[in-house]
Amino acid sequence: MDMLLKNIGVLATPVGTVARAGQCQGEIRVIENAMVGVTDGKFSYVGTFDETLTAASVIDCGGKLMTPGLVDAHTHMVFGGWRQKEMSLKLEGVSYLDILKSGGGILNTVEQTRQATEEELYDKTLRLLSEMMALGVTTCEAKSGYGLDLENELKQLRVIKRVNEGHPADVAATFMGAHAFPKEFENNRGGYVKYIIDEMLPKIAEKGLAKFCDIFTETAVFTIDESYDILMAAKKLGLSLKVHADEIDPIGGAQLAARVGAISAEHLIETSDEGILAMASKGVIAVLLPSTSFYLDKDFARANDMIDAGVAVAIATDFNPGSSPCLNLQFAMNLACLKYKLTPAQALTAVTLNGAAAIDRADICGSIEVGKMADLVIWDADDLDYIFYRYGSNLAKSVMKKGVFYVNHR
Ligand code: IZC
Ligand code: ZN
Question: Is 348 helix (H, G, I), strand (E, B) or coil?
Fold first, then answer.
């Protein structure tokens, strides 16, 4: 064994290699006075203290809480500029979609992202990823969608590939060319849908730059029919599907996600009972984004109704420069308890194993189990409740990725 982590006051982790749905969402393994062994970057022992075990290095965890490394399964973290100038419009009561319709919002970030060089985007994204990791995130997802033309979507996706390779955290890539209609196609919606299907998707699939394809299915953005065509084209090319569904209006995004066999549907603030049942029947994971509800001053998704219906719930930040300029997954964890009324155990599963499942990595991360990547957080906390109860401070004390500590706040 390369390393033994001993004197873990409480080890809390979901178990398994698939999403935990329904009642299972809240069933986690809790081990007191635990010990964890690491060999070749993977967990090789997980259990109670065992004095017979030895290793090249032994770390005393000070009686603190240990959980799996957090998984942030939904971010738009590669972008040029910021959008603080929209703050005054927001304060005057101008809605998110009205800002977009007037050429701002996503389209503002598209302008700034097109102007940025690949190196600028790379450096900025690396810094943001380090900030996320300092808060406990060891794996995340990142979407394109601020290029909205082939050249700039490829630029963003190359940045995602390079940060995945150049940073200890793992980053899963999602193509989201269907994030808005760029100004070149303002009066030619069909033309842009065709451009995505005929020009962008085949090139991106051929280069292997994205595992997932996501779409903003929403009033004034992509209709259900347009979304269906784009998603089916992506599926034919071997991409797994995700849908931004029912964030602002309940137009049937959740049902669409079920119909096309998406791995996940995201947001789901306004999803109907029918949408929840459709997701449950097809095993679509709900990726809920409470920081966005908070920031847009919207309702909070019906997390408990989804869990009761048998839908696996994951929780992520939605980090982006418009509707969620917050990359702190710990804040989303607080909101999960306070606003969704999830228990700490359900919320832990949502930001670890279920997040991993939403990006098809539940077999390699999202829980502390022998054989999985040694990704973990040691918290400045004595028990699990504490990290959901305190908010506003970074409670992650040490963060390990594949057996190496990259963060050690002392
Ligand atoms: O930049 O506003 N909702 N896409 C869909 C976003 C938020 C990101 C943005
Ligand atoms: Zn999003």
Answer: helix
Percent of the chain at pLDDT above 90?
A: 98
Which ligand 1 atom lies nearest to the CA of residue 105?
2
How many angstroms separate the alpha carbon of residue 397 from the centre of ligand 2? 28
> What's the 112 CA to ligand 2 centre distance in angstroms?
18
Using pLDDT thresholds of 50, 70 and 90, give the confidence band for residue 410. Answer: low
Confidence band, pLDDT 50/70/90 cuts, at residue 404? very high
| Whether 374 contacts 42, CB under 8 Å | yes
Helix (H) or strand (E) holding 354: helix 353-358
* Domain ranges (residues) in the chain: 3-68+367-408, 71-358
What's the CA gap between 377 and 291, in Å, rounded?
22
Same fold for the domain at 3-68+367-408 and the one at 71-358? Answer: no
Q: How far apart are the C-alpha atoms of 215 and 141, rounded to whole Å? A: 15
- CATH match for 3-68+367-408 among 3.90.20.10, 2.30.40.10, 3.30.70.2740, 3.40.50.300: 2.30.40.10
Q: Is 104 in the pocket of ligand 1 (CB under 6 A)?
A: no
Residue 110 CA to ligand 2 center (angstroms) comes to 15
Q: pTM higher than 0.90, yes or no?
A: yes
Does residue 178's CB lie within 6 angstroms of at least one atom of ligand 1?
no
Class of domain 71-358: alpha beta
Query: Rounded mean pLDDT of 252-270?
Result: 98
Atom of ligand 1 nearest to the CA of 96: 2
pLDDT at 409 over 90: no
Phi, psi of 199 (to 5 degrees): -105, -50
pLDDT tens for residues 98-153? 999 888 999 999 999 999 999 999 999 999 999 999 999 999 999 999 999 999 99
Mutate to test the pocket of ligand 1, among 82, 179, 181, 242 (most ligand atoms within 8 A of CB): 179
Contacts of 68 (CB under 8 A, 6+ apart): 13, 14, 352, 353, 365, 366, 367, 368, 375, 376, 377
Ligand 2: distance of its center to the CA of 318 in Å? Answer: 5
CA of 140 to the centre of ligand 2 (A): 13
